[in-house]
Design brief:
Layout (H helix, E strand, L loop, with lengths): L2 H4 L20 H10 L2 H4 L19 H26 L11 H11 L8 H13 L12 H8 L3 H10 L14 H5 L24 H11 L3 E5 L2 E4 L4 H23 L5 H9 L4 H9 L7 H26 L1 H5 L13 H19 L2 H26 L4 H9 L11 H13 L3 H11 L8
Antiparallel strand pairs: 1-2
Length: 443
């Protein structure tokens, strides 16, 4: 793969309309701006990250998480481009200086396809079709569509959200640059090739879109079978993934401290565990007059993120040849130096034991699973029997942008998933309560 092809200003849906603008913004900064001002991005403020949406204590939601990932991603991209240009001055015209803008835009978009209630929403969609009432539809659907539904993944749904032409919307969806679009695709192959991991990069409906972009950018084909093509990642995916890995691991620890799931001492131990003893003491000494524990935790957290960011940049730059050849294995975080890797693993162990299995998190997962499963059950029945009176009421609730009355069954079912995955937690809960008769609209 070649940087000069990988960094492309071409926009999906406007391939023949590119022209230089009089603006100082780069094309990739325009990607960032159109994402951050979109309603799909704003809706993430009411989507669960890990903990339930806040009561008296504010914790991260999908929107604040994405903003922070974007900030770290910009640093990763800018630092990596600076180092690569130092090593390869002949690439000054390859667009490498745009890494920061591309990665920050991709980071904003990376979670936009996630359904309400986090991963429990994903699992509810998967299980409805694989083992629930939706399983009876298997013989009526093409194999690739069945794989999409039973392996539903938020990452693939983000690519769909950004590229699909919903009713009343323009060709090309968000009309993003090719480089930004491919930088969010962590698993560049279709669901028919994902196996038991249930991770893939694009739905069957968008397969031709991705392959067209991949061909333009020169992404290497690693495997080609009757099931489809498995591509090498766009190199900048590794930086987007690293920004996400760094933020969710470190910020979950900070949130757990705010919610008193972790003690002051344990939180300090985890965050300062990324440093050697001498560095650890200098970090402690940096705030000698600060007595508020929350301020100290914020400072320790920023130091930990900075250490991980710098390490990931070094790994990325040193592995440039492997990455461009499509031969790099694992994530950047999985290649951290031993001391940092052990500190990161310690945070992971505590997160699993104290956070992801905490009562608060399990409660929201159980409730969210049931809500999404129930709505999916009712909406699927409605698109299968649209002539029924109750079906007409349900279908009337949805925006006309969703093709819930399409002739093709595959299109109708994908429209149901589009509708549900675009909901916020609050909207899904409110609709569930109204449908189940637990609440009535105010007159």
């Amino acid at each position: 793969m070649d940087w000069k092809r990988l960094i492309s200003y071409k926009r999906f849906g406007k391939e023949d309309a590119y022209h230089a603008t009089a603006e100082y913004r780069s094309e990739f900064q325009r990607d960032f701006d159109r994402l951050i001002f979109s309603s799909a991005f704003r809706r993430m403020q009411n989507k669960t990250q890990v903990f339930p949406l806040p009561g008296s204590i504010f914790v991260h939601n999908r929107l604040t998480h994405s903003l922070e990932v974007s900030s770290v991603g910009r640093s990763l991209g800018s630092d990596a481009s600076r180092e690569l240009l130092r090593r390869h001055p002949g690439l000054s015209d390859a667009g490498i200086d745009n890494f920061g803008a591309i990665v920050s835009a991709a980071c904003l978009a990376h979670d936009m396809g996630n359904p309400p209630f986090g991963h429990s929403g994903e699992r509810a969609i998967q299980s409805f079709f694989s083992e629930g009432q939706g399983s009876v539809l298997r013989e009526q659907l093409p194999k690739e569509v069945w794989a999409d539904l039973t392996s539903f993944d938020g990452n693939a749904n983000a690519f769909r959200l950004l590229t699909h032409q919903f009713n009343g919307h323009r060709l090309g969806g968000f009309v993003m640059t090719y480089s930004a679009l491919t930088s969010i695709v962590k698993y560049p192959y279709p669901a028919t090739m994902c196996g038991k991991k249930k991770k893939f990069g694009f739905f069957a409906a968008e397969r031709e879109y991705f392959e067209r972009i991949a061909e333009e950018l020169g992404l290497r084909v690693l495997e080609e079978t009757a099931e489809g093509r498995r591509y090498a990642r766009h190199p900048l995916v590794y930086l987007v993934e690293a920004a996400d890995d760094i933020c969710y691991q470190i910020m979950d620890i900070e949130d757990a401290h705010k919610l008193r799931l972790l003690s002051d001492q344990k939180t300090e131990e985890l965050l300062l565990g990324f440093f050697e003893p001498k560095v650890r003491e200098s970090i402690r000494a940096a705030y000698p007059s600060v007595t508020d524990i929350n301020d100290r935790i914020v400072y320790y957290r920023s130091c930990a993120i900075n250490a991980l960011e710098q390490a990931c940049v070094r790994i990325f730059v040193d592995a440039e040849d492997e990455i461009l050849a499509g031969e790099f294995k694992g994530s950047l975080v999985s290649h951290l130096p031993e001391a940092l890797r052990e500190a990161y693993a310690a945070c992971e162990r505590v997160a699993v034991a104290k956070i992801y299995n905490s009562k608060e998190v399990l409660d929201i997962e159980l409730s969210g699973y049931h809500i999404i499963y129930t709505l999916l059950e009712l909406m699927t029945e409605a698109v299968l029997s649209p002539e029924k009176a109750y079906s007409q009421l349900l279908l009337g609730q949805a925006s006309s942008q969703y093709e819930l009355r399409a002739e093709n069954l595959s299109d109708r079912l994908m429209a149901v998933v589009d509708y549900l995955s675009g909901m916020t937690d609050v909207f899904a809960l409110d609709l569930y309560r109204k449908i189940s008769g637990q609440s009535l609209p105010m007159v």
